[in-house]
Amino acid sequence: MSTLPNCPQCQSELTYEDGATLICPECGHEWAPGAAAAAEDGPRVIRDANGNELKDGDTVTVIKDLKIKGSSLVVKVGTKVKNIRLAEGDHDIDCKIDGVGAMGLKSEFVKKV
User: Fold this and answer.
1) Domain map of the chain by residue range?
2) H or E segment at 110?
3) Phi/psi of residue 40, each to 5°?
4) What is 1-41's CATH number, 3.30.70.980, 3.30.300.130, 2.20.25.10, 2.60.120.340?
5) Beta strands, E only, 1-109
6) Which CATH class is domain 59-112?
7) Contact, 28 vs 13, CB < 8 A?
8) Who has greater pLDDT, 31 or 101?
9) In 17-52, which positions are buried (b, 16+ CB within 10 angstroms) versus exposed (e)?
10) Strands across the sheet with 85-86, in order?
11) Which of 13, 100, 107, 108 has its CA 20 to 30 A from that of 45?
12) Is 69 helix (H, G, I), strand (E, B) or coil?
């Protein structure tokens, strides 16, 4: 008796494991075992340092001096960043900071205004 999940595309029960990937021999679909569960959890919620939910277009304030890699520039505490965009990855905020330019920030270093 197989304990592998059915194929998410065609619902076939004939799925098999190939390393870290699951494969359906009927439709040829390949997926990671946790991918279906992660997709069902819903959209990712990004929160600031105080726990407030962030959304695209919000204005945030930097709560810590941030050194910029490969540059001598520093984003100072209290810098206001307008019209943020949420992104996937380690740096989950894309923004443009006056005097610095476009960059990515981590949500743990900002607070919502």
Assistant:
1) 1-41, 59-112
2) strand 110-112
3) -80, -15
4) 2.20.25.10
5) 16-18, 21-23, 30-31, 60-62, 66-67, 74-75, 80-81, 85-86, 93-97, 101-105
6) mainly beta
7) no
8) 101
9) eeeeebbbeeeeeebeeeeeeeeeeeeeebebbeee
10) 85-86, 93-97, 101-105
11) 100
12) coil
Return the SS3 of 38: helix
> Alpha-carbon distance 34 to 21, whole Å?
10
H or E element at residue 35: helix 35-40
Note the pTM of the prediction, 2 decimals.
Answer: 0.63
Report CA-CA distances (Å) from 68 to 4, 89, 102, 104. Answer: 46, 18, 12, 10
Can you read off the two tokens belonging to residue 74?
A: 């520093």
Each residue's pLDDT tens digit, 27-77 = 888 888 765 555 555 678 899 999 999 999 999 999 999 999 999 999 999
